[in-house]
Amino acid sequence: MSAKEFTIPSEPLIEGLSHTLGYIVKQYQLAGLVGEERNIAQVFLTCETRHLPAKYRRHVIPQGETGAGKTTLARNILKPFRSDVESYTRMTGAGLDRKEESLDGKILFLEQLGVGEPTQLRFLMTEGELTILYAERDQSGRIASKIHHIKGTPVFITTLVGAEIDPQLLSRVSTLEIDQSSEQTKRIINRKLEGWSTNSTEEEWKTLAPISWIDEKCKQLGPYVEAIKIPFAKQLSNGMPPLLSMRRGTDRILNLVAAIAFLKAALGLRPLVEMKLPPGVRQVHIIALPEDLNDALYCLGDALTESVSYFFGRSKELYDFLSKKNDRATTKDVSLALKMSQNRAREYLNILVQLGHATKSKEKGTYYYEATSHEVPHLELKAAFTYTDLEAWFASNFAPGSAELVMPPESRTGFTDPSSVVMVEPQTELKSSTIEGTVPEPSTIGQIVPDLSPDADTTITTDNETVPSNVAKTLGVDQVMEKLHALRSAPTRNHYIDYAATILKDQGKAKTLIDQLEHDGQLINDPDGKFRWTR
Predict the structure, then answer these.
(1) Topology of the domain covering 310-371
(2) Using alpha carbons only, what angle is made at residue 165 by residues 159 and 168, rounded to the nearest 5 degrees?
(3) Across residues 133-162, what is the average pLDDT?
(4) Quick check: helix, strand or coil at residue 42?
(5) Which of 86, 180, 326, 345 gives a 20 to 30 Å CA spacing to 146?
(6) Residues 374, 388 contacting (CB under 8 angstroms)
């Protein structure tokens, strides 16, 4: 293994996008993706939300015509996370009903959304649980009712060709429009020609190693996130139209802001509120800053206003055509005017009808479509928030002595007025934007996660407590075990590893220690799903 240091440039690499997200997008482009800056950022951020509580998880659907590059985009972005990806070409309701493993914290990737996809997906995405009542023969041969539970909220990613989509599913996802411009096509052609004519010396796994490390940092912080707060959110009220669709549209916009804040917090770039709780228990509130809103608006781009009203793909183009036409239009009229097949025009017109953007009538065997008259919403989302505002917000939201406001040195850039920031030294160690990771060997490309193995795995035993010897050199055995026993139980094994890492100051040694304790039967998964001590 060779150590390598990844440094996120302090200057933005993509105009309009913060240096953190710009760096991530550029790494994916170096690994082979062309253009698609907004879509790369959104899909990546959606993947990272799998580490957050279910209410913050996002779902996206890249949309475009056949051959536009939707699946290529998704598959390339998913490469660093493949150990958490469940990928399917097709999914049936019966198959989902009989699934035994939890989908919680997984990325559920369906290559292409079809007309017959199971409606159960909607409930998993929002409720995080399916309860299925089914009939089955018992041992005596009698038919009896049984109940099967599927728990866990996955991050759902799929692709869509055309416009055939369940409106209820559409209201739960963010649709991304693939760049199908001639300029983008030319860039892709040039990249392909370059690939055929030159020999690249840069290996993909090395290019994506920083992405894997960033994901690992998000994974470490995620279990402790109690909430992500946007203190300036009320300032956005005047810029949001009072449309019914905004009831869910507001959450979709702010969830993207929250995802961006989480990413930056994991890299030590955002203020944190650390709750003062008993030893072994940690709860964190992440604070979003105006820069995160600006990043979200960049990612959403010009389609923000359209997506609020559930326009996607070319549906707004069809709506505008119907609105300007003095008379009703047929599928053939739309097909000729917008240069698309009649089947595709019919799909878009039908979804406009389902979403209330058009009406449909039939005369003498021919269907006619007419746009409904309503004002297209206008969104103007701006906010100002200084360090002084943060101090006032913290004082009004947390009782004295109940929490600590932690300001990492690199978080000042996210405020409206960075010069107003007065740095407060955190009690806990925080990483800067300089990433110290380990580049994996080519054999690890299947998962592309930096190796965190300890220096040695020999062990010593004292008073029936088995501890790796390299751990014992750092702290006394009794001291290590006493500190670990303070955490009686935790939701997952990773909680114990992260807690041990805070004691040992070494993630690899912490993992070795927990592995050994689990092997010796001192730590177990109990029937309630908790990871706890046996004594």
Answers:
(1) Arc Repressor Mutant, subunit A (1.10.10)
(2) 115
(3) 78
(4) helix
(5) 86
(6) no
What average pLDDT does the segment 301-310 reach?
A: 64
Q: What is the CA radius of gyration of the chain?
A: 26
Tokens read off for 220: 């470490």
CA distance 166 to 152: 22
Correct CATH for 18-202 of 3.30.360.10, 3.40.50.300, 1.10.3720.10, 3.10.20.600: 3.40.50.300
Which pLDDT belongs to residue 378? 67
This prediction's pTM: 0.69
Name residue 327's amino acid. Answer: D
Q: Are 280 and 248 in contact (CB under 8 A)?
A: no
**343-372: pLDDT as tens digits:** 888 888 888 888 778 888 888 889 999 888
Domains of the chain, residue spans: 18-202, 310-371, 459-533
- The residue to which tokens 């890492």 are assigned: 501
Task: Give the class (CATH, top level) of 459-533.
Answer: mainly alpha
Instruction: List strands edge to edge, sheet with 523-525.
Output: 489-490, 531-533, 523-525
Residue spans of alpha helices (H) in 200-314: 204-221, 246-266, 290-300, 304-308
Q: pLDDT tens digits, residue range 230-255?
A: 999 999 888 777 666 677 778 888 99
Specify burial of residue 151 (Cβ count, 10 A radius: 0-12, 13-18, 19+).
middle
Q: Provide the residue type at 113 as one letter.
A: L
Q: Measured between alpha carbons, how far is 324 from 284 in angstroms, rounded to an integer?
A: 52
> Dihedral sign, CA of 315, 321, 327, 332?
negative
Task: Provide DSSP, 409-434.
Answer: GGGGGGSSSGGG------SS----SE
